[in-house]
Design brief:
- The chain is an all-alpha fold and 516 residues long.
- 80% of the residues lie in helices and 0% in strands.
- The protein contains 24 helices and no strands.
- Helix 3 packs parallel to helix 9, helix 8 packs across helix 23 and helix 17 packs parallel to helix 23.
- The longest helix is centred in the C-terminal third of the chain and has 38 residues.
- The radius of gyration is 25 Å and the shape is globular.
- The two termini are 33 Å apart.
- The N terminus and C terminus are likely disordered.
- It is found in: Membrane.
- It is a multi-pass membrane protein.
- Keywords: Membrane, Transmembrane, Transmembrane helix.
- One of its GO terms (molecular function) is monocarboxylic acid transmembrane transporter activity.
């Protein structure tokens, strides 16, 4: 059930399996329809992530309409953004059962319904349910399939493809901010949300574009070698995959027996249906319902078995120590990126820089450079001589350094330089699906990346209130940056030490065997 070394896609120097089978590359892998998947994912990021980045416009309208505290009103936006990411593991269950296309279409309908129902809100608590929960869950059901499908359709240029698709967040932040501001001015915030709900139905179109690969194409992906050899990182990760395999793989025989039993049931239903043609139409209608229910039961059981084994089975994702370290890193990473957006206005005000900031806001510098950072880091990571893992770590080190040094900057130019570095280095977000796929393989990408974005969601939900709590105690924004930066550094250290431990273990084992 777990990814082999070939699944991970690294070059281990063992081409025995790959050489024994002639491979006919699918033209849709790294080309053809794959670029339509990138376009679909790009539009999803515009409509979902871009809209969430523009919720400040609606937040001001809600404050004026409902006369509630800023803290209570802000929870509407926080719930929507947090739930979008936190529901990741459960969306993985839907993907296992229904596939990415159906999950995304259902999510698009749910997201649009959340926007439309929110137009009739009578209080903030109503918005918690309609916009925070309903629209948030719908967003999560579209966002995860959009990322997973890009990973399935690309092998050689995965980092570039993910970088291009995720730039939709930056473009969406500008487009949706301008759109919501115009709609609220012309039609009022209620009609604006109703219109935005209608626009969100385009997520269903994006989901329809997510054409699943045939089983033959999925199998052939296992034997497609990536053009960039990442030997150093591969050696560190190879034992991780082998350890999981040695810890125990779910036996396929029970699954085959269950499938055979289910097929027998369906065949018997079909025979009954054929033999009973002379019977009344009512009984035939009942047999068709029974057949549909049986097929649905088989699909649900199979999907749940895959989802359950990924999290709790013998070959659980949590038996991969590097992946567990990746989860710990994700718990601290996202809040460190969000906190500068919260405290930058305070920094500008303290150093008397509002006039310069009004001309070109520091947050806009981060957003613009963030777009270029995703694409450039993706291009660099796809180079044959470059390791994606090393690019990912270098970007993290640059970002944590900027977070720790930002409070020391006292001029607009120095702050602008640091903000530009924050925007560029945070482009590593486009590498997260690539690194996740390298750790667990394409087959487990949906469930694994669901866990990662869930950790990011927890960080996004709790990080800003934690930073505000520190500010209330110390009355200084500096400590928010220092504490979040140190926690972020702890997560990076986990990423560094786990591959070393994995690499050291087989050496110790071989020494013990030699002594025996």
């Amino acid at each position: 059930m777990y990814a082999s070394r070939e699944d991970i896609g690294y070059d281990f120097g063992d081409d025995s399996k790959a050489g024994s089978k002639p491979i006919k590359p699918n033209p849709n892998i790294d080309g053809g329809w794959a670029w339509m998947i990138v376009l679909s994912s790009f539009l999803v990021h515009i409509l979902i992530m871009g809209s969430q980045m523009a919720l400040g416009i609606l937040n001001m309208e809600w404050l004026e309409e409902f006369n509630q505290s800023r803290g209570l009103t802000a929870w509407v936006s926080s719930l929507s953004m947090g739930i979008t990411l936190i529901v990741g593991p459960f969306i993985g269950l839907f993907i296992s059962m229904c596939g990415c296309r159906k999950t995304a279409i259902i999510g698009g309908i749910l997201n649009a319904l959340g926007w439309i129902l929110s137009a009739y809100a009578s209080n903030v608590h109503y918005l918690f349910l309609t916009f925070g929960v309903t629209a948030g869950v719908g967003s999560g059901m579209v966002y995860l399939p959009a990322v997973v499908m890009v990973g399935q359709y690309f092998q050689k240029r995965r980092a570039l493809a993910q970088g291009l698709s995720t730039t939709g967040t930056g473009f969406g932040a500008f487009l949706m901010t301008a759109l919501l501001k115009y709609l609220c001015t012309e039609f009022g915030w209620r009609n604006a949300m109703f219109i935005q709900g209608a626009i969100s139905l385009n997520l269903c179109v994006c989901g329809a574009l997510m054409r699943p690969l045939s089983p033959k194409d999925v199998v052939s992906e296992k034997y497609v070698a990536r053009s960039n050899s990442e030997d150093n990182r591969a050696k560190a990760l190879s034992h991780s995959a082998e350890t999981v395999k040695s810890n125990g793989v779910l036996s396929e025989e029970p699954e085959k027996k269950e499938e055979a039993t289910n097929e027998e049931v369906l065949d018997s239903v079909q025979h009954i249906e054929i033999g009973g043609k002379s019977r009344s139409g009512r009984s035939m209608y009942g047999l068709r319902i029974l057949k549909t229910v049986s097929q649905l039961t088989v699909t649900v059981r199979k999907g749940f078995a895959i989802w359950y084994s990924s999290y709790f089975g013998a070959a659980s994702l949590f038996t991969n120590r590097v992946f567990v370290a990746f989860i710990i890193w994700a718990l601290f990473a996202y809040s460190s990126f969000v906190i500068p957006f919260i405290h930058l206005p305070e920094i500008v005000k303290q150093y008397n820089l509002p006039s310069q900031n009004n001309i070109f806001p520091l947050t806009s510098i981060i957003a613009i450079v963030h777009i270029f950072g995703k694409v450039i880091l993706g291009i660099i990571s796809d180079l044959p001589c470059i390791s994606t893992w090393n690019v990912f770590l270098m970007a993290n080190f640059t970002l944590v350094t900027c977070i720790l040094t930002l409070p020391l900057m006292q001029t607009y130019i120095s702050l602008a330089v640091v903000c530009a570095l924050i925007g560029f280095s945070s482009g590593y977000f486009s590498l997260m699906p690539v690194v996740t796929e390298d750790l667990v393989g394409t087959k487990h990408l949906a469930n694994a990346y669901g866990i990662i974005i869930c950790a990011n969601g927890i960080s996004a939900l709790l990080g800003p209130p934690f930073a505000g709590w520190i500010y209330d105690i110390t009355h200084k924004y500096d400590f928010s940056f220092y504490i979040s930066g140190l926690l972020y550094m702890v997560g990076i250290i986990f990423l560094l030490i786990q591959p070393c431990i994995q690499k050291k273990q087989p050496r110790e084992k071989s020494t013990e065997e030699a002594q025996v």
